[in-house]
Each structure stands twice: as C-alpha cells, then as structure tokens.
Q: What sequence folds into this?
DNA sequence: TGTAAAATGTTGCAAATGCAACATTTGTTT
DNA sequence: AAACAAATGTTGCATTTGCAACATTTTACA
C-alpha cells in the first residue's frame, strides 16, 4: 500500500504539511472520528493506529465497511462524511493528520520538488482504492456463495502468486467481506472440500485446480 | 461528471496533450479497444462515443461491468487491462485519446498554468470513481433483493433531491447493476408496490415513505 | 492464569431467489 | 410499414441461503 508521503524526506514532509495546513490529532480508543471534522474537503492520514468505518441500518444493524490501518488514508473526497449512518471508530489509540484538499493548489508548494512526488502518491492511492473496490465488486456480483468464495480465493492466489496462501482476515470478517451469512459460508467451504476443489488448514487455503 | 480537461481552454488542452504524449484513435463499432494498448500505464479519455467493459466467465457467461460515455475516463491505473477475461467493446464509432501516465511528471508541463487544473480534474475523477464504487458496494452488500432495490432508489432520490425520479437505465440494466435476476427483481418491485412502499409508472419511481 | 469475549463449527427450517420458459410490449432498422 | 431485436411482465419450481440456536475452540485481557 502506498503511503501519502512515500519517497519524501522528513524535512520536506514537514514543509508540505505546513503548506497544506495539516493538523494532527490523537484520539483515544473507540471514538467516532468523523464527528469533529469540518465541512471542507480533507484527506486524512493515519500516522498510527487504526479505524473502522461502520454503517448502521434503519433498524440498528451494524455492518463493518472497511478497516484502515497505520499509513492508510481516507477522506471526504472518497467518502460522504456527512452521512449520519456512517461512523469511523478508532480501534485503538490513533493519531491522524488531516490536510485540506483545497490547499493542494497553494502556489508556494507547487514549486517545491517534493510536491510532484506527493501528487503522484495521492493519485496512486486513489487508483489503488478504485482497484480494490473493483475487486470487491467482482466478488459481490457473483450470484452464489460458492462463486464468491472462489473469486476471493482466486484474488488472493493471484496477489500472492501461489495456489496456497493464508487468508489475512478471520472467517467471520471474510463472510462480511463477501456479504454472506457466516454459517452458510462455512457450510459451502466444507462442500468445496468435499468436492476436492480446495484444501484447508485453519486459515491456510490451497486451491486444487 | 468531471471532464479531464474541464476549465482548460483549447490551446492549453492541445499543449497539455502534446506534453503528455497523447495519441488519439478512432475505432469502429464493436471493437475490443484493450487489444491494442501498450504496457505503460495510461489514462484514456473518450472524446466521442461509448465503450462497455465486459467480463467473460470460465463457462462463457458474459456480464457487463460498466458503460463509459463521451467525456468519460478509464485506464490501467484503475483497471487491470492485462486481464484476459475483461474486454472493452465500442458500442458505436468511438474516438479515444490516450495519455501516458508517467509523462505527468514531465518538467515542462509542471510549469504551465493549466497543469494544476488538469491534476485537480484527474484527482476529482478518481475520487468520483471511488465514490461511485462505494455506492455500488453499498447496494451489493445488502442481503435481499428488496433492500438492494430500495438502496438504489434511495441513492437516486438523494442524487436528484426528490422522492420522485426517473431511473436513467433500463430495468434489465438495473438488474445487472444490482446483480440480481431480472425476473426476481420485477417480482420484488410489484411486492413493493403492493406494500405501498413505492409507486411506479414505467421508469418513473416515487418513494412513498 | 482465570475468565470473558470472539471465532469457529454444525444443523434444521422457512423464505428468498435464480432459472427456465413463456407472452406481450416497445424500440430499431431498413 | 414490416420485420426483427430488445425490453418487460409473469409464474412454477428446485435450490440456495439467511437465520436462529446451539456446542466447542481459540484469543484477549485484567
């Protein structure tokens, strides 16, 4: 995953942050971060810690949208922060730096060498996000639970370059990612084993085709 | 939808295109555009016409991923163009301009005034894409067809700022967008009418809650 | 280390949904 | 205007799936 300040040295990071009117806030665990954010478009960088985007249904059902860890980025550019159904909860003590999107046209900063690197990093991050979403959509558009599971496994195998891999999340989280019932997913995974299509050992998966 | 060259005059558009080593190609109808694209990262802008991204399953099932019209943008930054399962088909005579992503650091162009506008447009386009995908995911993660339909209608109502709106696609395409069986969707829509939750008149929908 | 919380595994059952196979209407092209 | 293609509407049926309600194992943490 690309870091917003990748390939920029500390001095220039500080310089850029200054020009972009960056503010850094440290939050305790289990706090809703979005509640004290202003109206302007912003980009948030997690310096340390992690947050989880959660949405709450009209009938109170919570679902986890996304988890973002240290180095990760989120912002009003790519997420409707004024949406009351969505909250962004710190999962631990978390430090976040906010930069104002509008200040990226700041004349002074445009002339600095690090600026173009910064912009390229930003573009890279956004592109990666689109790609990630495309992968998720590719899974979710599959009609059956079986095909969703296999599509996820295929993506993992392709990322790791091997038909054998350990999934990086719990099965509970995986069910959430595929948007299927956990127990139905477990059931389908045993069918896949019965049919000789996969082998499993805990979270280690091997594709047999 | 943002155009990549929005707020840039024709002279500067030509200048930028020159610096970014832009090439323009006109394709006939029903041609796979991705087949003759090189390895470098690129951004494609549809000057005129429309294309459709299609994926073909292992057992030959075609599904439409996305339709992009005049002014729209796509590229290897946000889509794996080397994926053999995915093709990009022109739906009519279509003119496309390609720019090389790596040339956006071109020193000469950085100094031009229009450059920052161009970059901001690009960032805006990418952000919009992430937002669009988020909306789609919000729909697809709903468990029931009914909730998928209602989520789509809610998004439409919110975009138009009215509980009464005309959906911009056919019901066949909508079923595809929600990734549900078309006939099952039609059935569920009549239930929604029976339950007094919506009213319909052709593609015009009114939310009654 | 002990205890609570979270993750995992399993199964019955009702409800939802994909699929197939139609009829009918609307739109497009020559 | 005729002919064809695409979109829409409808229904029966088998299958899949969510849901609930458990038991068991693993992990977190005080």
A:
């Amino acid at each position: 995953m690309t870091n917003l300040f990748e390939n920029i040295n500390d001095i220039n990071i500080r310089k850029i942050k200054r020009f972009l009117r960056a503010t850094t806030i440290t939050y305790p665990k289990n706090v809703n971060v979005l509640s004290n954010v202003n109206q302007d478009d912003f980009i948030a960088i997690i310096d340390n810690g992690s947050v989880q985007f959660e949405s709450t249904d009209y009938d109170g059902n919570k679902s986890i949208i996304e988890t973002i860890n240290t180095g990760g980025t989120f912002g009003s550019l790519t997420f409707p922060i004024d949406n009351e159904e969505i909250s962004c909860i710190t999962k631990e003590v978390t430090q976040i730096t906010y930069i104002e999107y509008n200040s990226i046209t700041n004349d002074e900063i445009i002339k600095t060498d690090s600026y173009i690197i910064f912009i390229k990093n930003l573009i890279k991050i956004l592109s990666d996000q689109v790609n990630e979403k495309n992968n998720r959509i590719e899974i979710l558009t599959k009609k059956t639970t079986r095909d969703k599971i296999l599509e996820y496994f295929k993506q993992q195998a392709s990322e790791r370059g091997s038909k054998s891999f350990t999934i990086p999340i719990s099965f509970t989280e995986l069910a959430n990612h595929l948007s299927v019932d956990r127990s139905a997913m477990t059931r389908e995974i045993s069918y896949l084993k019965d049919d000789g299509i996969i082998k499993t050992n805990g979270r280690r998966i091997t594709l047999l085709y």
Remarks:
- The first helix of chain A runs from residue 10 to 19.
